[in-house]
Amino acid sequence: MHPVTAPSIEDGAVLVDGSGRISAVGPNSLVPTPRAARLMHFPDAELTPGLVNCHTHLELTHLGGGAKHEEPEFHRWIWHVRTLKDATSAAGFYEAALAGVRDCWARGVTCIAETGSTGAVMRALHDLGGRGIVYHETFGPDPAQCAASMEDLETAVLQLRRLATPQLIVGVSPHAPYSVSAPLYQATAAFARRERLPIAVHIAESPAETEFVRDGAGPFATLFGARSIPVEAQHCSPVAYLERLGVLGRGTLCIHCVQVSEADVELLRAAGAAVAHCPLSNAAHGHGRSPFGLFRMAGVPVGLGTDSVVSTGEVNLWAEANAAGLSGDGALSALTIEGARALGREMEIGSLEVGKAADLAVFPFAAFRRPSSPFAALTIVSGRIVHQISAT
Predict the structure, then answer these.
(1) What residues does 363 pair with on adjacent strands?
(2) Cβ(129)–Cβ(93) under 8 Å?
(3) Minimal CA–CA distance to 109: which of 177, 53, 185, 180?
(4) The dihedral of CA 331, 336, 338, 343: what is its sign?
(5) 49 vs 376: CA distance, rounded Å
(6) Neighbours of 104 (CB within 10 A)
(7) How far apart are CA 255 and CA 272, in angstroms?
(8) Phi first, then psi: what are they for 389, rounded to 5°?
(9) Residue ranges of the domains in the chain?
(10) Residue 66 has pLDDT above 50, yes or no
(11) What is the Rg, in whole angstroms, of the alpha carbon atoms belonging to the chain?
(12) pTM of the shown model
C-alpha cells in the first residue's frame, strides 16, 4: 500500500466508513474490521490513492487519434477538430463522455479536470457519480463578440451548476489567446471571481501562439485577417499577457505552458497559479518540452494531464509521467497528491489519510513501474466501486 504522504506499507489496509471517507490506514493487522464491513483482498497488487488527471477533453473521446495526423499544422488541426465537433450531436458528445469517464476509471483515475464546451462531461460525471472539475469553455476572438459570449457562458454555467455536487465542481475556461479577445478574458475572469468559479486556460502552448501574442503575426494572425478581426501585438509573452489582463490568480490552472521563460515561471508563482503538464500532447504536436523541473523548483503546483485522445490516442497517465521523466514513487506522487494540489483539492484527495475521501485504486503488482500496463483491477470513488476487474 502506498499512502503517498507516508511511507509505503508491505501488507497495508484501508477502512472506509459509510460516508465514503477513510477512517483508518495502516498495517492490515492493525486496521479494524467492523462486523458489517465488506472485506476485499488483493494479495498480489498495490493499493494507491486514485489518480488525478489534470487535463482532459473527454467529450472528444469518439474522435480517437485520427484527426491529429490529418492536419499536422497546429492551427489547421484546431479548426479541423472544430469541424468534427460541429458534426457531432448532443447525444454523440454524451456517449463519448460516458466512454471517456469509464476509460479513466479503468485506468485508476478518480478525479478528472475536464475542459469542454458541450457540458456533456458534467452530465456524464453527474449521472455516473464521478468526481471532477468541469471547466466550461468560452470562445470569441472578436471583441465585438464579448457580450454574446458572456451571455452564453453565464447561461451554461447556471445550467451546469444544477448538476454540481460536493465532488463535482463547475469552472470556466476562456480557451486560448487566439480564440478569446482581451475584453472576453477580462469579463470571464471578473465573472469567475464574482461567482467563485475556478479558471482553466490553454496558454503558452505553441510557437505560433507566442508569435501571435508577442508580434501580432503568424498563422493565427492570418486567420484573424481573413475574418477581419483586428490584431494587436502585445509585445510580451502569453503568460505575461494573461497576468496583464487579470486572468492569473490563485488556483488558475494554466494548461500546457510550454513556451515559457524564467520570468513567466515567476509570474505564475507570484500569482499562485498552477500548471497542467501534458507532455505527450506537447510532443505529438511538436510544441517542445515544458520546463517541468523549473516549475517544481519554483514551487508552482504541477499536475499531469492526458489532454485529448485526438492528440494522444489514449488517456494513459502513467505514460505521461514517464514522458515527464518520472517513474516509481515519483510518478505516483505526481499523479496523486501533486495533481490534487494543482487543482486545489489536496485536502480532499490525493493521498491515503484518515478523513480524506476514499478515492482508491488497486493496480497489479508494480504496475506503476510499467507505463505500458496502466489498467487498474479496482477503482473506488468516495467509497463506491466504479470499476472492477476481479476481487477475492
Answers:
(1) 46
(2) no
(3) 53
(4) positive
(5) 12
(6) 28
(7) 14
(8) -95, -50
(9) 50-348
(10) no
(11) 21
(12) 0.95
The domain 50-348: what is its CATH number? 3.20.20.140
pLDDT digits (tens, 9 = 90+) for 130-181: 999 999 999 999 999 999 999 999 999 999 999 999 999 999 999 999 999 9
What is residue 341's DSSP assignment? H
Q: Which triple of cell numbers denotes residue 35?
A: 462486523
Asked whether the predicted pLDDT for residue 64 surpasses 80, the reply is no
- Give the tens place of pLDDT for each residue, 362-389: 998 866 566 666 799 999 999 999 999 9
| Partners of 133 in beta bridges | 113, 169
Q: Which amino acid is residue 253, in one-letter code?
A: L
Model confidence pLDDT, tens digit, residues 293-314: 999 999 999 999 999 988 888 8
Query: What stretches of the chain show up as alpha helix (H) in DSSP?
Result: 66-70, 74-86, 90-106, 120-128, 146-161, 182-195, 207-215, 219-226, 238-245, 262-271, 279-284, 292-298, 309-312, 317-323, 328-335, 337-342
Residue pair 122/156 in contact (Cβ under 8 Å)? The answer is no
Q: What is the dihedral of CA 257, 261, 267, 273, to 10 degrees?
A: 20
**Which stretch of DSSP H or E encloses residue 133?**
strand 132-138
Q: Which residue has the cell 463506491?
A: 384
